[in-house]
Every structure is written in C-alpha cells, then in structure tokens.
C-alpha cells in the first residue's frame, strides 16, 4: 500500500448493523484468523503487533496501533520495508451498541488512496456481508 506523494488520500467512514454481540464479532476484526475469513486472502502475524495482509498474492504490512478489547482496533499500514510512514494509511474497526435497541454497529474508518465514494461503499458493503455470513448475523 505504498503511495506516491501525488496520490490524494481520503477518510472513508461507514457504519453497518451486524446482528452479533461484540464478544463474538471482535475476534473477526482483530485477529489474523478472523480477518482471513472475510477481509482478505490471508493474514499472518509477522512479529509483535505486526501483521501481513495478503491480497492477490501481494503483501501489505500493518501494525496494530491501538486496541480496546471487544470495542476497537486500528491497523496502520507500513511501507515496503515495514517502516512507519508520516501520513500512513490506516484502517479502524469499532463496535458500538445501542442501549435502547440492543443493536450492534460496526464502524469502519478507511484512510487510504481516494476512491470513488460509491465504489468504496459498495466494496465495504460486500465485505461486511461476508462478515455477517461468518458470524451468522
């Protein structure tokens, strides 16, 4: 996910209702085995808080920069040499529950190369549909 300085980045934010408790849902958002089931081709732990996300046989290294159990996780992507970048791409998943309706919402924050917002929404809807199939929600 190395970007040249000429590419514009955008912060995409979307919320999706998911019919599963945060305890069931969180491992699918924060572990290599869980992410592999819905998010990308494969995810492997590399070292410490670092993971390798694999899409189409390409490695994309990221570091877990923050995590709150059953609530939120943020992955900050690294350069090709696995080093931090000043304006790095990141992906954040957070779970919110409505006390009134008992619904659980997955909030996705995707900070990366600017894409067509409609295409990005469609991509995330497809990914979250796969996630819902995995958790039965």
UniProtKB/TrEMBL annotation:
Transmembrane domains' residue ranges: none
Q: Which residues form the START-like domain?
A: 8-136
Q: Which superkingdom?
A: Bacteria
**Coiled coil where?**
none
What the entry lists under Pfam families is as follows: START_2
Protein name stated in the entry = START-like domain-containing protein
- Which organism's genome codes for this protein? Hymenobacter glaciei
């Amino acid at each position: 996910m190395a970007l040249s300085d000429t590419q514009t980045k955008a912060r995409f934010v979307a919320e999706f209702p998911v019919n599963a408790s945060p305890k069931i849902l969180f491992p699918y958002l924060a572990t290599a085995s869980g992410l592999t089931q819905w998010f990308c081709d494969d995810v492997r732990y590399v070292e410490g808080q670092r993971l390798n996300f694999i899409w189409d046989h390409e490695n994309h290294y990221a570091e877990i920069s923050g995590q709150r159990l059953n609530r939120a996780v943020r992955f900050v992507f690294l350069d090709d040499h696995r080093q931090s970048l000043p304006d790095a791409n990141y992906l954040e998943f957070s779970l919110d529950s409505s006390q009134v309706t008992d619904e659980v919402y997955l909030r996705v924050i995707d900070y990366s190369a600017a894409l067509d917002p409609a295409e990005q929404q469609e991509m995330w809807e497809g990914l979250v549909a796969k996630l819902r199939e995995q958790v039965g929600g």
